[in-house]
Amino acid sequence: MASRNNGNGNGGPTTVRCAIYTRKSTDEGLNQDFNSLDAQRDAGEAYIRSQTGEGWTLLPDQYDDGGFTGANMDRPGLRRLLADVQAKKVDCIVVYKVDRLSRSIRDFGKIMEILEKHGATFVSVTQQFNTTTSLGRLTLNILLSFAQFEREIISERTRDKQILARKRGKWTGGHLPLGYDLEDGNLVVNEEEAARVRQIFEWYLEGQAVHGIVAKCEGLGWQHKQWATKEGKTFGGHPMRKCHIYTMLANPLYAARIRAADEIVAATHPRIVDDNTFDLVQQKLKENTRNPGGEHRHKLEALLRGLLYCSCCGSAMSPSYSSSKNRRYRYYVCLRTIQKKGDGCTTRAVSAPMVEEAVVESVRRFAMTPEVVEATARVARQRLTEELGRHREELKAVNVRVRNAKSQLVRAKNLEADRETSLREIVTAGEAKAEALRSAVERGERLRFDDRMVRQHLVTFDDVWKTMTIEQQAALLRHLIERVGYDARGDKVKVTYNSNGIREYCKEATK
After folding, report:
1. Which of 21, 66, 295, 462 is 20 to 30 A from 362 (CA-CA)?
2. Which of 95, 115, 114, 93 is nearest to 103 (CA)?
3. Phi, psi for residue 57 in degrees, rounded to 5
4. Structure confidence by residue, pLDDT tens digits, 441-452
5. End-to-end CA gap in the chain
6. In this structure, what are the phi and psi dihedrals at residue 94, rounded to the nearest 5 degrees?
């Protein structure tokens, strides 16, 4: 039971503040005057009224999650409810059935931990059990197992139905591809978008690089497919990226084919690309990925990939290279220059080592600026204070354990050999642990994290940088830097730093 003694000596029940939680997996029918959530709430209110003699009272706040699955805890109503439990505003959670709260054993275990930690209880109106007993917990786990099994069975049935429909050539939903619209659940060709799809396939067969196709799409103002759900939620409508182009080129829907499990079968919707064109593109995609190791290596050597932009036109600058005998020359080139053959932008190519060294030098200077040094010192002092506090608390707890063990050894007579040995081991281990903690506290108290000390620590930047792999160096730059602008008119490099990355850098520098 959720009632508890009020501790005033009269044996009467104290007030038990009850919150009713309701949930429905879909939003179907929620706009009705009396829906499933209302029915669950009525049942909960009736149950609370039946326990009035035990001091139960209903809280006015409503915790409803209409249209949210019980397979996870990402639900606004549940988050508010658990927050109120942690704030000691709720003593008991009332639900219609256990699976309304959760269909996952693991998530339910997390919820129960929160309730137990904050002295709250849980009641199911239609399933009576007491979670304070081992039998009650066993019953609860059995119920949750069935709830999770039911959810998995429903998912499997849905998946099987989709596969069966796909084997019959039906499109079963998902993100709407460019070139098609949706009418009565069927794909129909959008002629304006379909012409763009055919053009992109032709460009690729002509030998155009994917980043070049992206630049062409950008110049023409072509965007990724934009569409809206029945609820009015909008997807897409973004500028074309390489991932969009690759997905489009490999999508069998354009050749009136559809994936069904491990098969590709004929689809019932109209085609946009003929079979011969689609098959040639698939062959070319396969040929271009036969040597992924070499391509990956070139990609990793581009330290500023995704960071470098042309200041003249604002376009991204893509890494590339040229070879001469046994040497390879790396450089970055403006994508708009590739697209317009130099007519639209004055920036041609810039030496990769030159611009990369300029950025690394900027980071080197940034690490030694007074603001960063001061922030790093401040974070270091804060961390030291927190660590010393933890050590002192742990030392206090260890000393208590040692004193208790010694007291038992002194007071107790005729102890069993095993018990005496255990107590002496506690004393020995505790005294050793206490000595180590005292030494750590003394060392910490002698430390003085001032700007000078931090500056001496940060001058090792070059040594650390040289030991890092190219992947680690690129990751650090992406962490610290928002973008790098290269201006060919003055051969200047401008680095814009990420404020969040700087804060994280200051923290990492003190570890």
Report:
1. 295
2. 95
3. -140, 145
4. 887 777 666 666
5. 49
6. -115, 125
The CA distance from 194 to 352, in Å, is 39
Beta strands (DSSP E) in 180-251 are: 180-183, 186-189, 227-228, 234-235
Amino acid at 395: L
How far is it, in rounded angstroms, from Cα 129 to Cα 137?
A: 8
For tokens 């799809």, the residue is 197
* Strand boundaries in 167-249, DSSP class E: 180-183, 186-189, 227-228, 234-235
Using one digit for the tens of pLDDT, what is the confidence trace for 10-61?
555 688 999 999 999 887 777 787 888 988 999 899 989 988 888 999 999 9
Distance in angstroms (rounded) separating the CA atoms of residues 149 and 105: 10
Distance of CA 427 to the CA centre of its chain: 45
Whole-Å CA distances, 176 to 179, 234, 248, 253 = 9, 11, 11, 11
User: For residues 437 and 391, is the Cβ–Cβ distance under 8 A?
Assistant: yes
Q: What pTM, to 2 d.p., does this model score? A: 0.35
Give, for 384, the enclosing helix (H) or strand (E).
Answer: helix 370-411
Amino acid at 329: Y
Pair of tokens at residue 327: 């040497």
Q: Measured between alpha carbons, how far is 103 from 400 in angstroms, rounded to an integer?
A: 43
Measured over the CA atoms of residue 307, residue 310, residue 316 and residue 317, the dihedral's sign is negative
Q: How many CB atoms lie within 10 A of CB 313?
A: 15
